[in-house]
Each structure stands twice: as C-alpha cells, then as structure tokens.
Amino acid sequence: MKVLIEKILRFHPQLAGQIKGVSDDEIIQLEKISGYTLPDEYKDFLRNMGHHAGRIKIVIKNSVAEADQSSYIRETPIDVRYDSVIKYYRKMKTMSEKKRLRLKRNLEKAVDRSLDQLFLIGINPIGNDAGNLYIDLSSKALRVVELTETFGETEHSPSLMEFLFKASFRRETVLRLQELNY
Q: Model pTM?
C-alpha cells in the first residue's frame, strides 16, 4: 500500500495534505465489531486513507438498458471511508437476528455462496442496482467483488491493490479531461 500511495503522490503531491488515515485503535475496533481479522493490505489502506482519500473516488460503472432498447453507462459512487464501513457493521450488530439472517440468506442465494469470507469495504449510498463492494478473504490477492441481489456477484478486480490503483488513476484521468474541457 505504501508503494501505491508513493506512486500516487509522485504524480499528485497535492494529495498528501488531503488524505487521512485511521489509528490502530480504530482498526482494532472495526475488527471487534465486524468479527473479522482484517488483512494487512486493507489495514494499510485504512491507516493511510481510511478517513479521507483526497480526490480519489471509487466509482462502479454499470451498463443500463432502457425499455426502449437504448443503453447508457451509469456511474455509482462507492463510499470506502472507515466511518461508513464501521457504521454498516454497527447497524448489522444492532439489527434483529431474524432480519440479519434474512438479509444474509437473500444475498447468499443471489451469489450462490456463503458470505463468511467476504468483508464489506465499500457502500453504495444510492441504493440502485449497483451493490456494495467486498474483499474476498478466501483469495490470497483479496479479490474485490460487488454483490447485489439482482445481479449476484461481479468481480471488479483480481486484487485489492490493483483495484485501488485503477480507481485512483481512473479518477485522475477523468479530472484531467475535465480540466482540458473535454
């Protein structure tokens, strides 16, 4: 993660003052509330950019088909901030066991596997057909997947590092094009 951040800062040094990480105590709190032992790579991300990632934004692009057979690309912002992730796990803890199990069963049915090895890292705040993002803890490289009841499981990247690297530079490309009035 440090190498990734160093590369990003080499191209965009102004981001150094915009990114803010979380403390080790906050990471321990997230592990306790979620019931997961977080992988080192994700902990590094949280330590460096967990509270604020500067101008880096995570966006899911989905192709949307309309009834009139037209289609377009819809971009859904995904909130990967620590505060949002821990809020999700706190909400799950306070939810009734019956409701929590129903939600889990519905999603497991859609993706045709157990959710026990998936850790939520990003929340879709819009609630459209784009889903939340998870890291697959059963894969050594920490595959990043999107889960929805409608479309099941979609892989966004074979690794967390690649996903974050692509997301950060994809955003910068969009910003550059906007700066050039394209």
A: 0.80
175: Cα within 13 Å, side-chain hemisphere: 11
The answer to which of 21-30, 61-70, 94-103 has the lowest mean pLDDT is 61-70
Distance (Å, whole) CA 103 – CA 139: 24
Task: List C-alpha distances in Å: 158 to 97, 137, 161, 163.
Answer: 33, 12, 9, 8
* CB 69 within 8 Å of CB 162: no
- C-alpha dist (Å) from residue 166 to 64, 101, 112, 161: 22, 34, 28, 9
CA distances from 114 to 110, 139, 179 (A): 10, 14, 44
∠ CA 159-151-134 to the nearest 5 degrees?
A: 30
Instruction: Give the distance, in angstroms, between the CA of residue 87 and the centroid of all CA atoms in the same chain.
Output: 14
Long-range contacts of 67-74 (CB under 8 A, 24+ apart): 74/128, 74/130
Which residue ranges form the domains of the chain, and what is each CATH number?
2-179 (3.40.1580.10)
Looking at residue 78, its pLDDT comes to 82
Which amino acid would we find at residue 106? N
